[in-house]
Design goal:
The complex is a heterodimer of chains A (319) and B (476).
Chain A: H1 3-33, H2 45-52, H3 59-62, H4 68-77, H5 85-98, H6 105-124, H7 133-157, H8 162-190, H9 203-212, H10 216-223, H11 229-238, H12 246-264, H13 269-282, H14 286-292, H15 294-316
Helix pairs in contact in A: 1-4, 1-5, 1-7, 1-8, 1-9, 2-8, 5-6, 6-7, 8-9, 8-11, 8-12, 8-15, 12-13, 13-15
Chain B: H1 21-29, H2 32-49, E1 52-53, E2 64-65, E3 68-75, H3 77-101, H4 106-109, H5 115-119, E4 141-148, E5 154-160, H6 167-180, H7 182-186, H8 196-206, E6 218-221, H9 230-240, E7 243-245, E8 250-253, E9 256-261, E10 264-267, E11 270-273, H10 277-280, H11 296-301, E12 306-308, H12 319-322, H13 325-333, E13 340-341, E14 345-346, H14 350-358, E15 363-367, E16 376-378, H15 384-396, E17 401-405, E18 411-416, E19 419-428, E20 430-434, E21 437-440, E22 445-448, E23 464-470
Classes of the chains: A mainly alpha (319), B alpha+beta (476).
Chain lengths: 319, 476
């Protein structure tokens, strides 16, 4: 397969996964900001959302205040933000269009339709800072649905060959990065000394973290107890059965890279690096992670995951 | 009803022509809302599939739909048989002409056409002189534009020997009709066209260089997703099951073409290129082009890769060469042409130029090297200023133009919001030439001029398309 095709397929997946993550992140933050002020976090919610989405550096160029309306407008609808939801959908569609022959008809038509709907939405709402909550919720649902359906169509209709593997690889790698970013921004809330006695104000922050990676229900199934910050960290980092945990995403990355390597009969740097990250996670315990520093651990993961993305690009994509 | 035009449904009579009786009955019975609803459905589907078309010089319309008309255009088996025989004859002659021009030039020695028409032609490629295209095939994919003016004759309006487009619309229009009007479709014995991609693949395979014994690697070369015909390029790659490459995916080393894949470089044997000659190789043609690959021409001339269509094939579809096609057919095949040529004044000839200048308001004037309906004058529809502009153009460069009578293009019933009216149509059948013969699927792309009275069917000029049904039954 063409290196350019692989590159495009991989990035369609990454962009749609990112769009899905941003939608969940905005939803979760919306809940927090709707809480009465006595529950408000010490850290400003909308600033932390900007950091988690990696938009904190460019945002101040376009807006003075990081309030709800501005941040949502920037993260969801702003074409000047290259990682906004609308940019992600547009880039995904552009990439898909460049390689539509590698996608199944269902996948292409779905993403093309999503792009058409996005354009229609933008026409109805010319001022993105004035979008009411109802319209916003409809939009975020649409975004999550777009990503899920694309995934689902791929799962149901694609040949199981390298094209499929690169599509899955994009999802897993992006997902790992997203989960790690949430952890990186919110790690202070998860440190054990942070649990106040009695009813916790932070409870809602923890549940918001879980929501942003759609793990709230999963948490209860896994731990069968009320939300404890170290459990949240454990779930998002070390639980294999949790689809957005770092360890699960990394295992998936290893799996798809192996599938690619097997098909081509050659394994390289990307496979080796992925396996090293996986081994580190497998050998870790949440206790040790807290002892040696949650922040350092997550930071290290983000750096290594980025390094892996570079190795993949070098080995298979456009370099 | 337009006066003085052959209407393919009625031929000016109250009763429809026999092959159109089914369509006429259906039009009479179908409530207008149904037609409107089907038309809207078609548009929605086309947009969803992404069958779009870019119009150059129009930023707003970066991705526009070509309007699709749901009333089919019908041809009888007898009409098609005549047309098909004429197309095969014509394309054979075109390939022989190209082999000759870049070879022994017998046609010039015999004085059939003036040499300067060839050598001063922008599409003539001196780099190809003395080179034999693999299997002597130059125009693997030809689109021959056909019009009819009565229920007998077909005229060739234009030969397209370079990179004719539109075949994806032929195929998608058929799918659309089967989906939207299954009853009407089933009531007619329509000859299928969906084997076109298989035919194309077979033709391209047969044209592979001799070194690939059994399994040539075929690719389609596209200028990229901002090209107006990008949808078609990706559509064909998909149907053929071949890679859709861009220039940046290709590298040439030691006269061998490779594409960059996830498993390293892979050798390429046949390139169905949808990039014009000028852009395929910056070392030979336009140095600023990034759409091709440096060294591609070298690989081609070394015989290591087949380019379809061959570089330089455009010299045969020039509008000035067109006027000599009947003689060219006689010269190579010793046969009378089966398809007529439209009477043409070559403005390079003094008498013709004089006549054309005196009759500009009645004639269609075309640039010899133009295409896509750009740079032409339709006298009867032109303003005084436009005519004056063309008069100056003609005077300063008479060699660059030909003129034709305003043809009474046939009309077909066409559906609009709230009604049905006749509109002018043409037909572009696609003729495939391989080492193993000529292949044509029955039909082609019917283009329709949607503006009342308009004779310009090009999609870049607001034309639409129809499905073309070649029936198993005869028209007469």
């Amino acid at each position: 397969m063409l290196a350019r095709t692989a590159d495009n397929i991989y990035w369609v997946s990454r962009y749609l996964e990112r769009a899905d993550f941003l939608a969940r992140l905005i939803e979760a933050s919306n809940r927090i900001s709707a809480l009465p002020t006595t529950y408000a976090a010490k850290q400003d919610e909308w600033t932390s959302v900007l950091i988690a989405s990696g938009a904190d550096e460019t945002f101040p160029k376009h807006f003075d205040v990081a309030n709800e309306a501005n941040v949502i407008a920037y993260l969801a609808f702003d074409p000047r933000n290259l990682s906004s939801i609308r940019s992600c959908i547009e880039f995904a569609r552009t990439n898909a269009r460049a390689v539509r022959t590698a996608l199944t008809v269902e996948m292409w038509e779905h993403i093309n339709s999503a792009w058409i709907k996005l354009k229609a939405f933008e026409q109805r709402h010319s001022d993105p800072t004035a979008i009411d909550r109802e319209a916003l919720i409809g939009f975020l649902d649409f975004v999550k649905e777009t990503s899920s359906l694309y995934d689902g169509f791929g799962y149901r209709t694609m040949l199981r060959n390298d094209i499929y593997y690169f599509a899955r690889l994009g999802v897993s790698l992006e997902r790992a990065d997203n989960t790690a970013r949430v952890l990186d921004v919110k790690y202070q809330l998860l440190l054990p000394e942070h649990e106040p006695l009695g009813g916790s104000v932070d409870y809602f922050q923890w549940s918001a973290i879980l929501r942003s990676v759609s793990a709230l229900t999963a948490y209860h199934w896994v731990y069968r107890e009320s939300i404890k910050p170290w459990n949240v960290a454990d779930l998002l980092i070390l639980r294999q059965e949790m689809p957005r945990s770092l360890i699960h995403c990394t295992s998936e990355v290893v799996r798809w890279l192996d599938a690619i390597g097997n098909q081509y009969g050659r394994h390289g740097n990307a496979q080796r690096q992925a396996r090293a990250i996986q081994r580190k996670l497998e050998n870790a315990s949440i206790k040790e992670i807290f002892q040696s520093g949650l922040h350092e651990f997550v930071d290290g993961f983000i750096t290594e995951n980025n390094g892996l993305a570079n190795a993949i690009a070098e080995q298979y994509l456009l370099g | 009803m337009s006066q003085g035009f052959f209407d393919e449904m009625t031929n000016g009579a109250t009763d429809p022509r026999a092959i159109y009786s089914g369509v006429a009955d259906w039009l009479r019975a179908a409530p207008p809302e149904i037609l409107d609803a089907r038309r809207e459905q078609a548009e929605l589907l086309f947009r969803k599939i992404g069958i779009t078309f870019a119009v150059y010089g129009d930023k707003e319309a970066a991705e526009r739909l070509i309007p699709f008309d749901i009333i089919p255009r019908l041809l009888g088996a007898d009409e098609w048989a005549r047309l098909e025989a004429g197309l095969i004859q014509r394309v054979k002659a075109l390939n022989m002409f190209l082999t000759d021009i870049y070879g022994r030039q017998e046609v010039l020695k015999a004085g059939i056409i003036p040499p300067d028409l060839v050598f001063r032609n922008e599409c003539y490629r001196p780099e190809m002189q003395g080179h034999r295209a693999p299997h002597d095939i130059w125009t693997h994919i030809a689109g021959i534009d056909i019009v009819r003016v009565d229920d007998e004759d077909f005229y060739v309006l234009e030969d397209n020997c370079r990179t004719p487009s539109g075949v994806s619309y032929m195929l998608e229009n058929r799918e659309m009709m089967m989906r939207l009007l299954p009853g009407l479709f089933a009531g007619h014995a329509v000859l299928p066209v969906d084997n076109y991609p298989d035919n194309l693949l077979a033709s391209l395979r047969s044209a592979a260089p001799p070194h690939c014994a059994d399994d040539p690697r075929i690719v389609i070369l596209t200028p990229g997703q901002f090209n107006s015909a990008y949808y078609e390029h990706s559509f064909l790659a998909d149907k053929l099951g071949v890679e859709l490459v861009e220039g940046r995916d290709l590298t040439v080393r030691d006269d061998i073409v490779y594409m960059k894949t996830t498993e390293g470089e892979k050798r390429v044997d046949v390139i169905y290129r949808r990039v014009d000659d000028d852009f395929i190789d910056p070392l030979v043609f336009r140095p600023d082009s990034v759409l091709g690959a440096a060294g591609l021409m070298g690989a081609y001339l070394a015989g290591n890769v087949t380019l379809a269509n061959a570089p330089g094939a455009g010299v045969a579809d020039d509008k000035a060469v067109y006027t000599y096609m009947p003689d060219i057919i006689r010269f190579y095949l010793g046969e009378e042409p089966k398809l007529k040529n439209v009477a043409t004044w070559r403005c390079r000839e003094q008498d013709a130029l004089k006549y054309v200048l005196e009759h500009l308001s009645e004639l269609v004037v075309k640039e010899v090297n133009g295409s896509g309906g750009y740079g032409m004058l339709v006298g009867p529809h032109a303003s005084k200023e436009q005519i004056e502009t063309f008069r100056q153009k003609l005077l300063s460069d008479p060699d660059g133009f030909i003129a034709q009578p305003t043809l009474s293009l046939s009309t077909c019933p066409t559906s609009f919001q709230g009604g049905v009216a006749p509109r002018h149509v043409d037909l572009r059948p696609f003729v495939l030439s391989g080492a193993d013969g000529v292949r044509i699927v029955p039909g082609g792309l019917t283009r329709v001029a949607l503006k009342e009275g308009s004779l310009v069917v090009n999609s870049s000029q607001g034309g639409g398309t129809k499905d073309t049904w070649v029936l198993a039954t005869n028209a007469k």
